[in-house]
Amino acid sequence: MSNYAFIGKSMPRVDSRAKVTGEALFTADLRLPKMLTGKILRSPYPHARILNIDISEALRVPGVKAIVTGRDVIQRKWGVFGYTQDQQFLPADRVRFIGEEVAAVAAVDEDSAQRAIDCIRVDYEILEAVFDAMESLAPTAPLLHDNFPHNINVHVPINVGDVEKGFAESYYVREDTFTASEDSYFQGEPYAVVARFDTDNNLEIWMPNAGPHMKAKPLSNALGIPLNKIRVRKITIGGAFGGRSEIAPADLICALLARKIGRPVKIVYTREENSIATRQGHALITTIKTGVRQDGRVIARDVTCYMDGGAYSSTGPIAVSVPFLCMEQAYKMEHVRYNGYRIYTNKPPRGMIRIHGRAFACGVDTQLDMIGEHLGIDPVTMRLVNAREPGEFTNTKSHVASCAMKETITKAAEKSGWNDKWGKLPPLRGIGIGCNSVQTGFPMGIRGGSQAIIKLNEDGGATVISGVVDNGQGNDNMLVQIAAEELGIRTEDVQLVTADTEVTPSDPGAYSQVSTFIGGHAVKNAAENVRRQLFEIAAKTLNVKVDDLKARDRMIYVKDSPDTGIPLKKVVRMILAQGKSVSGQGDYWPKVDPKREWVKNPFGQMCGAFSFGTTVAEVEVDPETGKVTVLEVTAAQDVGFALNPLVLEGQFQGSIAMGGQGGILTEGHVWDGGSVLNPTQLEYKVPLACDMPKINTIIIESNDPEGPYGTKESGMSIAMSAAQAYAAAVSNAIGVYMTDFPLTPDKILEALQNKVESETPNQNEDVMEKALELIVPAV
Amino acid sequence: MSREIKFVLNGAQTCVAIEDDWNLLYLLREKLGLTGAKEGCGRGECGACTVIVDGLAVNSCLYFAVEIDGKEVLTIEGLAGADGTLHALQKSFVSNGGIQCGFCTPGMILSAKALLDENPQPTEADIKQALAGNLCRCTGYVQIIESVEAVVDKSSGDINAVVRETGDSD
Ligand code: FES
Ligand code: FES
Higher confidence at residue A422 or residue A779? Predict the structure, then answer.
């Protein structure tokens, strides 16, 4: 390992300098000649028929240049899958959530655009709306989409083994229900789009994205122009977390406005628009029935999950499946049944989020603790007994090649001082543990692989062309690290041309945690290809075999005699002098089962590798206020191999903030019907610097046989397990198993109160207060 | 109503015509082309728009442009030396991984600078407090706090020298 020049070393990211000087340009920072400002008119109703849209007055507003409505779009619904095509961008007939796009204006400035928006007259016929997933299933509920009976958008049924037999054989069986409200991404950067058409009618478009190629194809469909005319450009991106993966209505709207007026248009979302009109996380109701042996090992599990999907499908089938898959990867069991339903409601559409399905994951782990308590087995042992091991298959038939789940558990427990703390902490202090596993990749069909092209210049510098996008996690640096390592040059010798659909070959995007595993792998293969070309010439010149050579620090050396070498630049020039170029391509396709399909056939190899993570959290609860103070968090993840520990630690810490600190303690949307009452950072509490606990990070390397250098996903299984650990720690602190997330102070106070009441036979208030004093230490 | 204001922007005397209802963020981004300050909310909730006015870190989205008349404004664009040498805080954010997506970074660095100018030896709690108005969704703040601490760890004389060198507005 230590033989690498850059791989495995902590190094500052190549994109950092531009970011500390303010030079890095985000979409909203772009300014093009003759650019106009776009604004979107949104539906004020959760469910309504559009009878008429009158734009005549709006067109007369000074400064207005173009207006688009449902009449300007191709009537073709968007869906990530053929069977989930349900969303017409700029619908002409019907709106299904408050905030849905109805019309848009391009004007010389924001004020004029807003004035025109205010002048658009829309006649609506208000329809009955439904805001609750369970109510939406009722036969009397209004139907959101005619072709989806009972408002069931997706149903994923999985049945492996015989759960009833498993329960019958179990020593102990219990069933519990866990719930969580919707959560939100709150990326630093609010959504923004800039679009323009060039003189040849090519669309140039900039927006935060998690995969330029994933944006380009649906844009080509929606605009009715060929894919090679869609140029999604590279731009600095202010975070994604799962929320920037599909085409957004604003992408199409901005392009339509730009095409209509023949000038560039920029749309920048407000914070509220980013919350209500991009994507949110799903609300969940998850019922888990688990049967175990006397030693705590799970034999059978039956899970039913209802996800509130909002008005449209988005990544529906994936969203329904992933929480189940994470659990079946993390823990063993013989028999399992899953029925996951994604239900339409008249709320904003929901997508995948970093801690997608928190009620599911926290439910599984909370229930393990409940079972452990019943059996007299501590949480760490419960997890060790059930932990996934390398070489096994998941229930849905994915082979798990590399897995250090058990090590993550033992290392996290050790570092956190678990044995000295479990059961020994003072009242209102608690410790909890959570485990999770995340996919390194989803089956992505024809966009499942990545290709990279590398060319070397006569001065020995390299240009790397790849579709991999950097949302902020450091993918650009990852590509530079790999290219420099393989070519034997310095990182400053590498220039990237990435995430630009005009030039970069197809790539799955920074989606499903595959950028390194697939995109990085392709760059590695391309670099090996180019290096081979160099070595062939160098070997002849040095009179050695190709296998005897190595490239390092701009030199090609003979391995055993480091004094014999030739500058890499010279070899490049020798090849050029022979009338040949020095360039090459490489690609990588994950070894997944092509027949696996989310709904119809959820069996077979899911992805190339799985990551495993364990988090331990220690908390203290204030019984007066219900406020939770987090004292210490320890996170251990099997990342395969740590490409850049500095970046990895940042991923762990960010995951703990979003998954545990925010995801379990504060974050959740509150509603009045279809209106989000907390769309901004003032009311929706994302963690602040002063909230963050002491964090210990432990990197565990299982060296995946397939991942480049042994790497696989990093960070996500920490976000998930942090949520589980925080939930467990709070439950442990107050002595009540909490089942509705997030665990806000009001719920904690209520749980404490109920606990006292249930432990107090006499319901007299006086007695209750005394009892409360007993469990609450004097301040 | 439009009027003319004079102020020192990143060390340079500046004179611009503004409208009464403009805020400083709008003036910087839309009229002066300084897009380092970001708009994350436009209402004082996120700190992405932080700039330094007369030594204090302020949310420029809430600061009326008229109010900077006669004052000194430092934006992220003015923090590095004229020759491109990074300020100690900028260097530290780079080397300690205090940056992920970078959207919060300009505001974060300027809040940290205002803190260090006023209190060259802050404790960890001081740093967390000073940065509490700057939201970061990516990092979990740990490496940001470490980036600031790494600058503090150097001798205080050194820090003052660095701050003076880059606060080239007087
Ligand atoms: S943009 Fe000024 S505080 Fe958010
Ligand atoms: S680095 Fe992304 S918001 Fe701070």
Answer: A422
C-beta of B114 in contact with ligand 1 (< 6 A): no
Position A167 pLDDT exceeds 90: yes
Say how far residue A700 (Cα) sits from the centre of its chain: 22
Among all residues of chain B, which has the CA nearest to that of A645?
B97
Ligand 1 close to Cβ of residue B41 (< 6 A)? yes
| pLDDT confidence bin for A3, thresholds 50/70/90 | confident
Residue with the two structure tokens 């080397």: B95
CA distances from A177 to A189, A242, A332, A437, A568 (A): 36, 26, 21, 22, 63
- Of the residues A14, A16, A475, A694, the best mutation for testing chain B's interface (the one with the most B CB atoms within 10 Å of its CB) is A16
CATH class entry, domain B80-161:
mainly alpha
Q: Tell me the sheet residues that pair with A121.
A: A54
Question: For residue range B150-159, what is the model confidence (pLDDT) as tens digits?
Answer: 999 764 444 3
A324/A665 Cα distance (integer angstroms):
23
pLDDT digits (tens, 9 = 90+) for A175-206: 999 999 999 999 999 999 999 999 999 999 99
* Residue A163 amino acid letter: V
Q: Which residue has the higher pLDDT, A10 or A777?
A: A10
B 6-25 residues inside an 8 A Cβ radius of A: none
What is the distance between the alpha carbons of residues A110 and A436, in angstroms, rounded to a whole number?
46
Model confidence, pTM: 0.95
* Any ligand 1 atom below 6 A from CB of B144: no
Assess contact for A574 and A567: CB atoms under 8 A: no
Q: What is the CA radius of gyration of chain A?
A: 27
Backbone angles phi and psi of A697, in degrees to 5: -115, 135
Is the minimum CB–CB distance between B37 and chain A shorter than 8 Å? yes
**Alpha carbon distance A498, A356 (integer Å):** 28
| Ordered structural domains, chain A, with CATH | 16-22+444-588 (3.30.365.10), 31-127+189-238+244-276 (3.90.1170.50), 283-443+596-743 (3.30.365.10), 746-775 (no CATH)
ipTM of model over 0.85 = yes
Instruction: Write the pLDDT tens digit of every residue in A431-489.
Output: 999 999 999 988 888 899 999 999 999 999 999 999 999 999 999 999 999 999 999 99
Q: How confident is the model over A168-177, as pLDDT tens digits?
A: 999 999 999 9
B104 reaches A (C-beta below 8 A): yes
